[in-house]
């Protein structure tokens, strides 16, 4: 079952109101958490946490849809495909509804439910039911009509006692009536009644709490909260107990030939004679034993949605063969940390609270993305390591990777196989001791390699908080109780190593601590004008830029140490805020923002992640904010940014959020050592392309001149980093004409040169 089907992914084109072209963005979503399924005669549609995929059962073609294509990053709660109108409806927990036109892939965001004057916690969309072109949308407050032809909402029905708001789990049409299952009973009203907004038109025919209701063949079935299936008796106008489920209902639905009832551990499939023809228990799916969320049938194939293992398929006739048909992706959407190399991306999923509490302890594995696709190393293979919070690749050997655990120690992965778990028994790492000698808790977080190939790590809440695994395999510890106010109460965040070999460690109680073993000294940057001038002692991230400045992100803003070399020469280290002018008023850049990450690109710009305000890209000195990406103006699925990293070769910026991983194809790559690998893309530039031309593989501060075929200069620039853009205009005045353009590149000293050509077709 672990052998997943690999298909080409078809990305649909969507018109969005983003300032940046969607060609600049890429989504890397997990499709493992299935929330709902829907079907047509030839296609299965699946909703995961905040993305969709569909599989054509005839061609086996997979299509994925995520925030890059226009979906919201919010949690999907319901899905429905109308075969008559060839439209797919996506319902969200916050009340948002998106209608996808499957003909051209266009999307319409409908916010009527979100905008209703109701408490936000009762706007969840639970179910869609179509009848004669009208979809009846079941919500936590009542029922809303939606017209598939006009794409407009109609009436809203509040059908509780005296017109109260009640949670409707599901509706169905049966013998001319709409039946609605709710937490306060089953109600019905004539579907032809023009006055259904009057709650008095809705008749209560069964009291109690009901989880689902559906029409199958000529009968009506409903399931109560206890898991008892009832059949409607029209003569008595009541529901009569039919059979009892072993667990509460999660989903009930009917196809033309089958009634499918789902609980967390079982799927029950009945034919038209209500004979149980197949029961699937999770124990039968031996390789994963998943939690089931829903199921449906197309032809002879059963499609099973699960909470952690995506979509599983089996046939009606088979009792032992199960296959996973989920698009490849990371294990989860909530990626806590990542690191890129030139040709791979590593991610981990553990976490801790704002106060560095790792509980509950996450039992997730590690994922790697490369040209081969996604490789997921499950929890069962990571040697019992919990709460993996950082990933560090050896720059001298990219096949050697270390995953920091904020509970279990340090996991070494070699050639994609977990090999060693370093902990208190086999290394210099130590368990915290304030909870007694029998309690083992080895909290490793920040990690970085120095120029000599030694791996430095932080070990929280112990006396000897700084450790190094030397390239020789030996461990060494450094006591920090003299620099920290209370070592056993301190937790470490991210760390960085500068060109002088100084280790910069972030702490939650003592700001930033620097250490250089060559002079055997610790120094501290914390709050107060004489102690370092941080806005708060809780520092989370440090980054050394291309000008040897130390950028410090805290839970209350940003500070800059002007020169990391001052650690070696000055007794006192003082940081400064960045003051910018906004609306002619002097303000502090990112004032009181909770900063989660800072990454420096090849042009010395800073990518800054925040805890709730998205991502900022600022200029090398911080005076210009080039981009501020949020969920409202970009494909970011969440404004909660966990981690950022940049592929220095391609310039692709990977952004891990609480609800998914996306990347932005930036242009700031690391500078090359020579001009041997200069390339131009796209080439040729075709009429439909509206972006810029990229000239990559450059030396830093290379001179670029572009002329037309007659030698007329149209562009000139000095590069910063390894990539430069040209907007195909003559010095910004007008778009150049079709033709071949010459690109002359020379190093700063003029010794090395390169000539390239690009064709532009208007």
TrEMBL record:
Keywords: Signal. Residues 44-203 form the PorZ N-terminal beta-propeller domain. It comes from the Bacteria. Coiled coil: none annotated. InterPro entries: PorZ_N, Quinoprotein_ADH-like_sf, Secre_tail, WD40/YVTN_repeat-like_dom_sf. Pfam families: PorZ_N_b_propeller. This is T9SS type A sorting domain-containing protein.
């Amino acid at each position: 079952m672990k052998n997943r089907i690999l298909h080409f992914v078809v990305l649909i084109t969507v018109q969005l109101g983003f300032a940046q072209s969607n060609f600049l963005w890429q989504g890397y979503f997990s499709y493992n958490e299935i929330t709902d399924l829907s079907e047509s005669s030839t296609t299965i549609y699946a909703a995961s946490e905040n993305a969709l995929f569909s599989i054509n059962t005839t061609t086996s073609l997979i299509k994925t849809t995520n925030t890059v294509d226009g979906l919201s990053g919010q949690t999907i709660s319901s899905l429905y495909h109308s075969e008559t109108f060839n439209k797919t409806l996506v319902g969200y927990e916050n009340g948002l509804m998106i209608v996808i036109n499957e003909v051209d892939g266009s999307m319409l965001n409908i916010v009527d439910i979100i905008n209703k004057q109701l408490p936000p916690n009762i706007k969840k969309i639970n179910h869609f039911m179509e009848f004669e072109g009208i979809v009846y949308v079941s919500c936590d407050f009542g029922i809303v009509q939606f017209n598939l032809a006009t794409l407009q909402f109609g009436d809203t029905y509040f059908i509780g006692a005296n017109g109260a708001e009640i949670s409707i789990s599901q509706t169905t049409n049966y013998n001319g009536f709409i039946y609605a299952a709710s937490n306060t009973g089953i109600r019905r009203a004539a579907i032809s009644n023009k006055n259904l907004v009057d709650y008095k038109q809705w008749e209560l025919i069964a009291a109690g709490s009901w989880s689902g209701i559906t029409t199958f063949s000529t009968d009506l079935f409903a399931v109560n909260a206890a898991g008892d299936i009832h059949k409607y008796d029209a003569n008595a106008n009541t529901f009569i107990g039919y059979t009892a489920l072993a667990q509460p209902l999660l989903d009930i639905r009917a196809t033309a030939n089958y009634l499918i009832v789902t609980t967390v551990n079982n799927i029950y499939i009945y034919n038209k004679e209500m004979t149980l023809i197949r029961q699937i228990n999770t124990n039968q799916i031996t390789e994963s034993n998943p939690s089931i969320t829903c199921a449906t049938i197309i032809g002879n194939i059963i499609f099973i949605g699960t909470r952690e293992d995506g979509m599983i398929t089996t046939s009606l006739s088979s009792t032992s063969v199960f296959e996973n048909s989920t698009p490849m992706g990371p294990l989860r959407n909530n990626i806590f940390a990542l690191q890129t190399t030139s040709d791979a991306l590593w991610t981990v999923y553990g976490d801790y609270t704002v106060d560095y509490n790792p509980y509950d302890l996450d039992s997730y594995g590690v994922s790697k993305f490369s040209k081969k696709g996604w490789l997921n190393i499950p929890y069962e293979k990571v040697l019992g390591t919990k709460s993996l919070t950082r990933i560090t690749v050896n720059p001298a050997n990219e096949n050697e990777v270390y995953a920091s655990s904020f509970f279990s120690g340090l996991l070494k992965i070699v050639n994609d196989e977990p090999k060693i778990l370093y902990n208190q028994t086999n290394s210099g790492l130590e368990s915290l001791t304030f909870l007694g000698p029998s309690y083992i808790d080895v909290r490793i977080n920040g990690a970085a390699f120095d120029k000599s190939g030694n791996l430095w790590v932080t070990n929280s809440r112990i006396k000897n908080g700084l450790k190094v695994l030397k390239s020789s395999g030996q461990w060494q510890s450094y006591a920090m109780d003299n620099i920290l106010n209370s070592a056993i109460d301190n937790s470490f965040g991210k760390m960085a190593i500068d060109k002088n070999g100084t280790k910069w460690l972030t702490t939650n109680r003592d700001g930033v601590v620097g250490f250089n073993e060559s002079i055997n000294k610790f120094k501290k940057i914390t709050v107060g004008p004489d102690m370092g001038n941080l806005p708060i002692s809780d520092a989370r991230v440090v980054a050394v830029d291309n000008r040897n400045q130390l950028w410090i992100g805290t839970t209350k803003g940003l500070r800059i140490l002007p020169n990391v070399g001052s650690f070696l020469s000055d007794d006192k280290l003082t940081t400064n805020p960045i003051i910018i002018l906004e609306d002619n008023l002097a303000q502090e850049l990112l004032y009181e923002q909770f900063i989660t990450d800072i990454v420096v690109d090849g042009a010395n710009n800073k990518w800054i992640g925040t805890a709730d305000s998205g991502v900022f890209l600022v200029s090398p000195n911080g005076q210009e904010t080039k981009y501020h990406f949020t969920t409202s103006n970009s494909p970011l699925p969440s404004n909660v940014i966990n981690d950022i990293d940049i592929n220095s070769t391609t310039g692709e910026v990977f952004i891990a959020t609480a609800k998914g991983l996306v990347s932005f194809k930036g242009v700031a790559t690391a500078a090359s050592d020579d001009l041997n690998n200069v390339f131009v893309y796209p080439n040729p530039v075709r009429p439909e392309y509206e972006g810029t031309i990229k000239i990559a593989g450059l030396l830093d501060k290379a001179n670029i001149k572009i002329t037309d075929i007659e030698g007329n200069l149209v562009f000139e620039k000095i590069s910063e980093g390894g990539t430069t853009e040209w907007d195909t205009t003559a010095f910004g005045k007008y778009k150049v004409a079709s033709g071949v353009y010459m690109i002359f590149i020379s190093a700063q000293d003029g010794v090395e040169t390169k000539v390239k050509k690009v064709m532009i077709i208007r």
